[in-house]
UniProtKB/TrEMBL annotation:
Pathway note: Cofactor biosynthesis; molybdopterin biosynthesis
GO molecular function terms attached to this record: metal ion binding; molybdopterin molybdotransferase activity
Protein name per its UniProtKB record: Molybdopterin molybdenumtransferase
Native source species: Sellimonas intestinalis
EC number: 2.10.1.1
GO terms under cellular component: cytosol
Reactions catalysed: adenylyl-molybdopterin + molybdate = Mo-molybdopterin + AMP + H(+)
Length: 403
């Protein structure tokens, strides 16, 4: 069968075609909602605040009563009620009257402004006001934050601390979210050892298993299988079969290049998986492939931890974004400029690690090979060096994706 080599954009289009948006939803309490994707719009049941409230400790009164007041010629008002936060006013404020009021307490009817206590003599029965104010100065109207019926959060948004706070301020204790995407992660390689065990000669620790699994959790997925598999076709077949039974997506690493023990493609084809593409025209990790095993998408990434990371961000993340209908998760390209030089050129687009702040991108010194992970520490973006560009200098414009 002929090889299908695609660009990143083509790969992402294929992903859009084969990954369907999940319709399965469930309820989550606000305490469980962090990182979950809203499956329906959230509207305010009530206005917030539900009543006009005082932004200061002071006196609620009628602005018309204190026109022209100052320290030398104060206006005296009768204090008819004391209102702390949590109390509801009993009195209507008439002309010549005021209510002692604390921050957060409802402003009584009749009053249209609050004078800060620092601008008074703190009087209890009678208060002297030292300042003139206009109506609705120092006044938080009902619905200042949002009005009853207003749409506060749109479906497809990912819940973070602020959005959880917004839901709480609207009085919701539960929200409807998309069920978590279940992902199986299989790393392949007979050289891989479990961290915490003693390395035998020729072995290395399996970093990609932990890296990929944690990233899937960060992106809101549930890791339902985490297996490190020897380069043995029958074992790999068994693991893939189990994974297809319990997962919505499968991510494998290793075994996709052209070595004798590079078995992943071969095994998937023998299992009857449909090939979507064989290679992505990008560095690193160009041997990355996508299959469908009994309808379950299988992302076969390269084993090198950095190469695996690049395709995790470009492709697996695109699949998770599609599954959730969450555009915020999609690896959108942004524009920035380099604060460092970059010497390598490439026959295809190349992604390198970087640290971005305000669109300015610093590259770590040296250590750019795809088997190197340590220099990725602190990096927060992947910078695209476009095909044909060479010897990039500080100040040059580039595209990047945030990670
Ligand atoms: P492969 O993609 O299987 O050809 O592996 C490419 C390189 O990445 C080899 O040097 C592997 O030893 C290394 N490698 C493969 N899988 C992992 C892994 N899970 N963790 C760390 N390194 C790996
Ligand atoms: Mg291998």
């Amino acid at each position: 069968m002929s090889e299908r080599c695609v660009t990143v954009q083509e790969a992402q289009n294929d992903i859009r075609m084969i990954v369907s948006k999940s319709r399965e939803t469930e309820e989550a309490t606000l305490l469980e909602a962090g990182g979950r994707i809203l499956s329906e719009n959230l509207r305010a049941g009530k206005s917030s605040p539900p009543f006009p409230r005082s932004p200061y400790d002071g006196y609620a009164l009628r602005a018309a009563d204190i026109q022209g007041a100052n320290k030398k010629q104060p206006v005296c008002l009768k204090v008819v009620e004391k209102l702390c936060a949590g109390k509801y006013p009993k009195q209507v404020i008439g002309s010549g009257e005021a209510a002692r009021i604390m921050t957060g307490a409802p402003i009584p009817n009749g009053a249209d402004t609050v004078v800060k206590q620092e601008d008074t003599d703190y009087g209890e029965g009678i208060v002297q006001i030292y300042r003139s104010q206009n109506p609705y100065d120092h006044y938080c109207p009902q619905g200042e934050d949002f009005l009853a019926g207003e749409k506060l959060l749109t479906k497809g948004l990912r819940m973070d601390a602020i959005r959880i706070g917004i839901a709480a301020s609207a009085g919701c204790d539960r929200i409807r979210v998309v069920k978590k995407v279940r992902v199986a992660v299989l790393t392949t390689g007979s050289e891989l050892a479990k961290p915490g065990t003693k390395l035998r000669p020729g072995q290395i620790y399996d970093s990609s298993l932990y890296l990929i699994s944690e990233r899937i959790r960060e992106l809101g997925g549930e890791v339902v299988r985490m297996n490190s598999v020897l380069d043995e076709p029958e074992i790999l077949k068994g693991r893939l079969r189990e994974a297809a039974r319990c997962a919505d997506l499968i991510v494998t690493t290793g075994g996709v290049s052209v070595g004798e023990k590079d078995l992943t493609r071969q095994v998937l084809s023998q299992m009857g998986a449909d090939k979507v593409f064989d290679r992505v025209f990008v560095k690193p990790g160009s041997p990355t492939a996508l299959f469908r095993l009994e309808e379950t998408p299988v992302f076969a990434l390269s084993g090198n931890p950095f190469a695996a990371t690049v395709h995790m961000e470009l492709l697996v993340r695109a699949a998770i974004a599609r599954w959730y209908g969450c555009d915020e998760l999609f690896p959108h390209e942004k524009r920035g400029f380099l604060l460092s030089n970059f010497g390598k050129s490439a026959v295809s687009d190349r992604y390198i690690r970087g640290t971005e702040s305000g669109g300015r991108i610093l590259l770590p010194n040296g250590k750019e090979r795809s088997g190197i992970l340590s220099s990725m520490n602190g990096c927060n973006c992947l910078v695209k060096i476009e095909q044909g560009r060479a010897n990039l200098r500080e100040g040059e414009r580039v595209c990047y994706i945030k990670i």
